[in-house]
Structures are given as C-alpha cells and as structure tokens.
Amino acid sequence: MQAVGIVVEYNPFHNGHAYHLKQAKKVAQADIVIAVMSGTFLQRGEPAMVDKWTRTKMALAGGVDIVIELPYVYSTAPASDFAKGAISLLSAVGCESFAFGSENGSIQPFLNTFELIDHNRSEYDILIKESLKTGASYPKSLHYAYEQLSQKFPAPYIDLAQPNNILGFHYLEAAKSLGSHIKPLTIPRIAAGYHDVLKEDSSIASATGIRKALASTSSLQSVQNVVPESTFDFLADWYNKYNHFASWERFWPLLQFTIIRHTPSELTRYAEVTEGIENAIVKAAKTSNSFNSFMEKVKSKRYTWTRLQRMITHIYTGFTKEQLQSFEQPTFIRLLGMSSKGQAYIGKHKKDIELPLISRVAATNDAMLAIDIHAAELYNLSIEQGTKDRPLPKDYQTPPIRC
C-alpha cells in the first residue's frame, strides 16, 4: 500500500483541507493518507481551539486514514524544527512521499531555493547577521538574506514571504538533511490565503479566518459554508459542552498566575525565553487584564508575536531549555486514530515502521511522551474550568480512535 504523508494542525479542519487531501492522494497516486498532526499546542505558540481527539475525528471524517501526533517538542518549535520532527515521523511510518500546500504550487522553485541557500550557506549566514545588527527580527533577516542571494543568482524561486512557502521550504530542507528518500510534492492553495478573513458566499476559508470569525461573532453559523458538515457537528458539540473554544484569552487567568508566580530570572529557564525579555513579561503580566493587552505591552520590533507566543507556551507548560536540548529526534510514533484502510496499512507494515508505535500511553515510559501528556493536562485544566462534569479525554486513558 502506497502512503502519502501530510503535516497538519486542522485548527479546525475545513473545505480547503478536504481539497488538499484529495489532491495529495491523487498527485502521489497513493492508497492512503497519513497525517502527522500537532497536539494541544501549535506552531504559532497557541492552544488548539479544540483538543487533539476532536481534531482527529475531524481528520478521519474528512478522509485521512492514519493520524499520528507531532510531539510538543516539535509542534511548538520554530519552522525548521517543526518540519524536522514532522518529516522524521512521516519517513519512519513508511510514507513514500509527502504533500504540502503552498502559495507557489510548483515543486521546482522549492528545489531551486533549497539549492541556492545550501550552496551559498556561508554568505547567507553573514547576510542574516548583518540584518540582525540593524535591529530587524530574525524572520525579516532571513528574508533579507534570501532576497540578496536570489538577485545574485537569478532563477525561478519561491516567495519566502508567504507562510506556507516558508514551511514547505523547511519540509524540503528537513528531508534533505535527514537523508530521507521521501519525495516532496506540493499542492497550490486555493481561494483563501493564510491570513485572509472570511469572505461572504465563499466555500473556502483559511483556518485563521475561521477562528477570527468565531471569536468575533460566537456564531457557528458564520463558518458553516466553509467547513464540512462533520467538522461543523464536532465544533457544535464542543461548543455545547464548554461554551467557548480554546484561546490564550480564555486561558489568561491561569497563564497570568503562572507568569507572576515566577521571578524574572526564573523565566529564563524556559525554552525560547531569551535574556532581556523576562522583566518585560513579568511587568506586563502584573498590569494586564487580558492576554491581548499583555501581548501589546511586550511585543517589539525584535520579538514577533509568534515568537512571544511560543515563549508564553513554554512558560505555561513548564518546558525548559534543558528539556529542549535533551532531544535530537522523535523517539516514538503516537497513534491518535485510523480508518479501516489505515488499520490494514499498519497491520501490513508494522514490522517496517522505524520507531516504536504507541497506541496506549499508560505503560509507556518515554520522556518526550511525558511532555505531551503534561501539556494535554494543562490544556484540559483551562478548558474544564466551571465544567468539571464534562471532562475532556485523558491522554493516559484514551485509545486511538477507529472509524
């Protein structure tokens, strides 16, 4: 059985994702689709709007055959490490290819871009350092260095100002650096850009646009046209139980407490918290009555919103620099759900899967997995405030979802 891999967050699963799934399977000529999906906290440093088990159900209902979890160590990491973790897992589970959505939509410019940077790495690094010295953020410095090189060696390249192109480049880079034979494929994004707001009478919207619409209107009907019926039902069921979707704004009381209980110097223990920002974080937490007002006080030219959110995520979950440095690669494959075809694939290829396949975590002693379980417990704690009679699934008790 041929498997194509995809890297997803499904926050939430929408019509654009359904299109990507079908196209990935078609272009790869694959029998099944395997999705490596972020758990409770995401790459932009924020909690997923609904838990990973609900998003797994959305994925399976939408046509994914196997859902495996991208561990917290990678799901909350900068793009290069996020990609490294995801591609490692898709390779280990036996995918012949992986397909990603991009603004570019053609694979050759990605290959050209990788070769440009790889063959001129020293000059690229010097240009980045020059830009950083001017006070530019790291992402802007990367883009500056890339622009300088691409003008010097003209060819069809990707636009690295586009978020999905950036991730696509890092997926390709990860596959090359890992020495994986997994084949890269890309599917053009349709209709809605990554940051686009919801458009009236459109059947395609970005996940960002959907979340913004739900946050501003609290009306599920506002997104009904842009998500599959199954996603709409899962979202409605969640909202009926908890009366809100997860966000840092909702988590603010517990997050504020977590920050304030630390001294500034203690905050520097946590992953991605760079020296100098800790005082601003504590000061802002003490004087803010919402997450948004807190972020407005700490954001600066040096620190992007996403970078700050990842710091905050690690502070909330207690994930330290020491823990981060102790991991070099994924140590297991966590199975979240599978279709009947997915079950058949695992039955046929189980002996060839390169990492331990975990379906039940209760008896598993793994440091990376322990971090995932801890993060899920803290996520659940914020969701369940005031709704203790409707608890979320516990990681150590929940078996993979089968459909």
UniProtKB/TrEMBL annotation:
Alphabetized InterPro entries for the sequence: Rossmann-like_a/b/a_fold (IPR014729), tRNA(Met)_cyd_acetate_ligase (IPR008513)
Predominant location: cytoplasm
EC number: 6.3.4.-
Reactions listed under catalytic activity: cytidine(34) in elongator tRNA(Met) + acetate + ATP = N(4)-acetylcytidine(34) in elongator tRNA(Met) + AMP + diphosphate
Alphabetized GO MF terms: ATP binding; ligase activity, forming carbon-nitrogen bonds; tRNA binding
GO cellular component terms, semicolon-separated: cytoplasm
UniProt keyword annotations, A-Z: ATP-binding, Cytoplasm, Ligase, Nucleotide-binding, RNA-binding, tRNA processing, tRNA-binding
UniProt KW Transcription regulation keyword: no
Localization annotation: Cytoplasm
GO BP, one annotated term: tRNA modification
Record-linked Pfam families: HIGH_NTase1
Binding-site residues for ATP, renumbered to this chain: 7-20, 101, 164, 189-190
Keyword Nucleotide-binding: yes
Similarity section: Belongs to the TmcAL family.
Alphabetized PANTHER family for the sequence: TRNA(MET) CYTIDINE ACETATE LIGASE (PTHR37825:SF1)
Role summary: Catalyzes the formation of N(4)-acetylcytidine (ac(4)C) at the wobble position of elongator tRNA(Met), using acetate and ATP as substrates. First activates an acetate ion to form acetyladenylate (Ac-AMP) and then transfers the acetyl group to tRNA to form ac(4)C34.
Protein name: tRNA(Met) cytidine acetate ligase
Organism: Lysinibacillus irui
